[in-house]
Write a structure and sequence with these properties.
The structure holds 2 protein chains of 2 kinds. By secondary structure, chain A is mainly β. Chain A contains no helices and 11 strands. In chain A, strands 2, 4, 5, 6, 9, 10 and 11 form a 7-stranded mixed β-sheet that branches. In chain A, strands 1-3-8-7 form a 4-stranded antiparallel β-sheet, with no helix packed on it. In chain A, a hairpin with a 6-residue loop joins β5 and β6. The model of chain A has no long low-confidence stretch (mean pLDDT 97). Chain B is globular and about 35 Å long. Chain B is built from no helices and 11 strands.
């Protein structure tokens, strides 16, 4: 069974940094692209970015490219999202998701982790 | 960026047929996908590549369309289908989602 479990969320002050993790199990992690999506409270979904199997290709939504960094550790079956210079607009549930390499849609999603940016 | 426009909400009775539309601001070829998000849950893939049903998803769900106009159909609707439905395009960078259509059952 494919499982994705995000962690590392919580309350963070404006301007600070936070690193989220996503532990993957039930599939061969190193064979798949992975991605991050976020959802502000009561709002829709926003695609953040994706990373390929060997980390040689990482794509971001342009508005977050200078703030967020996606990485992965295939030995640990873990995906990461490093977030910096956080503002209130970054308050959201953050989901990691497995990406297919056919059309790059998300076929499995984690439960999500809440990040609240507030003083 | 490619903007995907969805109607905000629909209300239907169980047993009826419902169509949820998604219009793209530019062509997305066949890279259109649909997700269901029940309250308090993560999104779940329903349809990929316009019309391909994800494994395990009931055949009551179907997708159609091409170019810029796409449709998700649920026939017949069941009470369990109460959710928000999002379309997503993965043809143009950056990938984008529609704002979602909230489906309520009467």
């Amino acid at each position: 069974e494919v499982k994705l479990a995000e962690s590392g969320g919580g309350l963070v002050q404006p301007g600070r940094s936070l690193k989220l993790s996503c532990a993957a199990s039930g599939f061969s992690f190193s064979d798949y692209w992975m991605g991050w999506v976020r959802q502000a409270p009561g709002k829709g979904l926003e695609w953040i970015g994706e990373i390929n199997q060997d980390s040689s290709t990482i794509n971001y939504i342009p508005s977050l490219k200078d703030k967020f960094t996606i990485s992965r550790d295939n030995a640990q079956n873990t995906l990461y999202l490093q977030m910096s210079k956080l503002g209130s607009e970054d308050t959201a549930i953050y989901y990691c998701a497995r990406t297919t390499d056919y059309y790059y849609y998300f076929d499995y999603w984690g439960q999500g982790v809440m990040v609240t940016v507030s003083s | 960026d490619t903007v995907l426009t969805q109607s905000p909400a629909l209300a239907v009775s169980p047993g009826e047929r419902v169509t949820i539309s998604c219009r793209a601001s530019e062509s997305v070829s066949t890279a259109m996908h649909w997700y269901q998000q029940r309250p308090g849950q993560q999104p779940k893939l329903l349809i990929f590549g316009v019309s391909n049903l994800e494994s395990g998803v009931p055949a009551r769900f179907s997708g159609s369309g091409s170019g810029t106009d796409f449709t998700l159909t649920i026939d017949p609707v069941e009470a369990d289908d109460t959710a928000t439905y999002f379309c997503q395009q993965t043809w143009n960078d950056p990938y984008t989602f529609g704002a979602g259509t909230k489906l309520e059952l009467k």
